[in-house]
């Protein structure tokens, strides 16, 4: 259910774009992002910061896209999100002396510090590549190509990064009983 919740706005964006246009698709994306936040509120769960930040960016840049009838704001939003992810990983590492990737995944994996550090830098690189490639496609190709790249290209690249991460962490999986003890 959570995985569907993550990808639902992207799917709806693509479907609305195909049947109407970029501006209606952007409006649908804003509504879906708001519904994601509302989902946690209704369930009386804390709203993950990621969803709040993404909703704020979506509402801001998406709103400008619709109001000014200029899709560049939406295109820049994607780049900014990836730059924020890269910055968060670097700030946690360099300023807070913590590995954000490790914080997220350490319940399931018991990898050495050097593995976490390499993966952290790999993801910084991924996010910088995603940001740069998105803006390159946005400025050098038509809107249809950019939408295809945003929906399919970046999603596939993200899955490749996740597979790379899992392959690198696989041998460090915590035994089931150790993982359940950490939850208590």
Automatic annotation (TrEMBL):
Residues annotated as transmembrane: 22-42, 51-68, 74-92, 121-139, 151-170
Sorted keywords for this record are: Cell inner membrane, Cell membrane, Membrane, Transmembrane, Transmembrane helix
User: Its topology with respect to the membrane?
Assistant: Multi-pass membrane protein
- Cell compartments where the protein resides: Cell inner membrane
Query: What's any one GO cellular component for it?
Result: plasma membrane
Q: Which InterPro entries match?
A: YciB
Family of the protein in this entry = Belongs to the YciB family.
Briefly state the protein's biological role.
Answer: Plays a role in cell envelope biogenesis, maintenance of cell envelope integrity and membrane homeostasis.
Known NCBIfam families for this protein?
Answer: ispZ, PRK00259.1-2
| Protein name per its UniProtKB record | Inner membrane-spanning protein YciB
Organism, as annotated: Thalassotalea agarivorans
Q: What is the lineage of its organism?
A: Bacteria, Pseudomonadati, Pseudomonadota, Gammaproteobacteria, Alteromonadales
Gene behind this protein: yciB
